[in-house]
Amino acid sequence: MSPIIRVDVGWVLQIRSAISPLNVPIADWGALGFMAGRHTFERERGVLHYEEPAARAATFLHTALLLRPFTDYNLVIGWACTSQYMHLSHQPLKPKDDDLYELAHTVRAQEADLRTVAQRLESWRTA
């Protein structure tokens, strides 16, 4: 079983700083907080709702695309968080050309839910 990685808003902001233009403003702090914390949601105390690393990682991309916590670069930041989370979980990803953009389009159109995103991440695993 992969380790359960828990991250916070600071981690998301570090990734934002590393991969996006300087000072991309935060549009919604509540959405940012939800983006950072969603992967740790527990159905009941001590039982994670998102059991698999791909499901936990999918929360970053899915939330960034739908809630848009940043004024711009939500796809880039959401994907960077997702990819880094999977890397930290020892399950690196390598999507095929244009697969990420196709997935982002379907999420934004609300044609793909979190489960679909997680399944797609699983199909992109390299390890």
TrEMBL record:
The protein's name in its UniProt record: Uncharacterized protein
Organism: Streptomyces davaonensis (strain DSM 101723 / JCM 4913 / KCC S-0913 / 768)
Upper lineage: Bacteria, Bacillati, Actinomycetota, Actinomycetes, Kitasatosporales
